């Protein structure tokens, strides 16, 4: 028995030897390949990294430095004033109004967009011709925000197409001055929701379409309603897409500029009650009918907004972090 075992062990060892040799040979080739890859890593990565550092970190650091200066642009001598630009932001009611407007767009439009996107995506999953409907919903997002803003401004003019149509069908009581000072920001919020919802419907639908159908079939066999299917199947299995969509909305909402400017600024600068931070920053630097050319102040606004975006993105990532679900 011992001989048999010894003989078997010798045969096994003999059989394992070529495999061991092949394994070592493959390991050597892999190591050689890894060494070659390491040699090529920096030559390939370094140019892109240098361009990134030059075009991103360079201007970012310059903006941070200028935010501590009093400077009116090229040809003017910079004068270091410390944190006075940041103190001025805190004391500036126009900036606080713009900051509040940006936060309102972030929160109010964000909640409305995601509620609508969830509802629409849940219904579209069960509908025929959903690809065509998705395209129609996505259409406003791919049109230039300038064109959308100008078009909506003309459409909602007191004598525009909407009010004229309402009066024409005997609904004069519903015709309103949509662009009046006390109404215009609400109209802008509705416009932002209309323009952006289609994009987030597309994202959520892309996440839901990855889910195998048998999950829904099992849920239906178990008697789950459509809402329960969304709660227990769609939501957890597409959570990573939802988290990315939420981060994208945080970033995009705080940068909204063209739509509001085109919607309200066709006859001059946008009124103070509808300005977002990017618009106020534009007016305080090189934009508008009478630019202020206050570059240091404008850079301070930019630094504040970048810091806010970073804080919100980190917060969102931590709050929405879940264990990865594989299926």
From TrEMBL:
Endpoints of the signal sequence: none
Taxonomic source organism: Sphaerisporangium krabiense
Domain ABC transmembrane type-1: from-to ranges: 99-316
Major subcellular location class: membrane
Keywords: Cell membrane, Membrane, Transmembrane, Transmembrane helix, Transport
Pfam families named among the record's database cross-references: BPD_transp_1 (PF00528)
GO biological process: transmembrane transport
Stated family: Belongs to the binding-protein-dependent transport system permease family.
Protein name: Raffinose/stachyose/melibiose transport system permease protein
Localization in the cell: Cell membrane
A Gene Ontology cellular-component term: plasma membrane
Superkingdom to which the source organism belongs: Bacteria
Residues spanning the membrane: 40-68, 105-124, 136-156, 184-206, 232-251, 295-315
Membrane topology according to the record: Multi-pass membrane protein
């Amino acid at each position: 028995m011992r001989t048999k075992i010894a003989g078997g062990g010798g045969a096994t060892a003999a059989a394992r030897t070529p495999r061991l040799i092949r394994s070592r040979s493959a390991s050597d080739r892999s190591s050689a390949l890894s060494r070659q890859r390491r040699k090529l890593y920096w030559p390939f990565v370094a140019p892109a990294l240098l361009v990134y550092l030059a075009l991103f970190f360079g201007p970012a650091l310059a903006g941070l430095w200028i935010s501590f200066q009093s400077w009116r642009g090229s040809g003017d001598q910079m004068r270091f004033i410390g944190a006075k630009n940041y103190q001025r932001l805190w004391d500036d009611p126009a900036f606080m109004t713009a900051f509040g407007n940006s936060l309102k767009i972030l929160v109010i439009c964000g909640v409305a967009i995601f509620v609508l996107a969830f509802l629409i995506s849940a219904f579209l999953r069960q509908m025929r011709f959903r690809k065509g409907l998705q395209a129609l919903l996505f259409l406003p997002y791919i049109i230039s925000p300038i064109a959308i803003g100008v078009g909506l401004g003309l459409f909602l003019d007191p004598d525009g197409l909407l009010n004229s149509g309402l009066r024409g069908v005997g609904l004069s009581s519903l015709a309103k001055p949509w662009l009046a000072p006390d109404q215009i920001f609400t109209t802008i919020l509705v416009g932002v929701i209309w323009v952006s919802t289609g994009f987030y419907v597309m994202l959520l639908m892309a996440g839901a379409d990855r889910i195998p159908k048998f999950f829904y079939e099992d849920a239906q066999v178990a008697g789950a309603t459509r809402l329960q299917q969304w709660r227990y199947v769609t939501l957890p299995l597409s959570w990573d897409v939802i988290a990315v969509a939420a981060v994208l909305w945080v970033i995009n909402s705080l940068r909204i500029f063209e739509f509001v400017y085109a919607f309200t600024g066709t006859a001059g600068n946008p009124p103070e009650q509808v300005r977002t931070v990017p618009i106020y920053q534009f007016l305080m630097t090189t934009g508008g009918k009478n630019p202020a050319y206050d570059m240091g102040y404008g850079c301070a606004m930019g630094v504040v907004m970048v810091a806010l975006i970073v804080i919100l993105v980190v917060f969102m990532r931590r709050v929405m972090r879940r264990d990865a679900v594989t299926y």
